[in-house]
Amino acid sequence: MGNLLETIYDVLFNPRAAMETIAQKKLTGQALVMFTVGMLVPVWAVYTGIKGAPALGSMFVLHFIGSLFFWVVGASVLNFVAELAGGHGTAVGLFAALGFSHLPRVAVIPLGVIAALLPDNLRGIAFGFIGLLVVIWTLSLSVAAIRGAHGLSGAKAVLVLLAPLLAIIGAIIAAVIFLGAALLEFPLHF
Amino acid sequence: MFKRSVVLLLIFIIGISMLGALFIAPKVKQSKLVSHDKIAIVYVDGMIVGGRGQVGLFTEGGGTDALIRQLHTARDDESVKAIILRINSPGGTVPASQEVGEELKKIRATGKPVITSMADMAASGGYWLAACTDKIYANPSTITGSLGVYMPYSNWEELYKKIGVSQEKIKSGPHKDILSPDRQLTEEERAIIQVMVDDMYNQFVEVIAEGRHLDPAKVRELADGRIYTGRQAKEVGLVDELGNMYDAIDGAANMVGLQGRPEIVEYGKLNAIEALLGAQDTHNPDQLILKRLTEILSSAGPAAVPQSY
Question: pTM of whole model > 0.80?
Answer without folding.
Answer: no
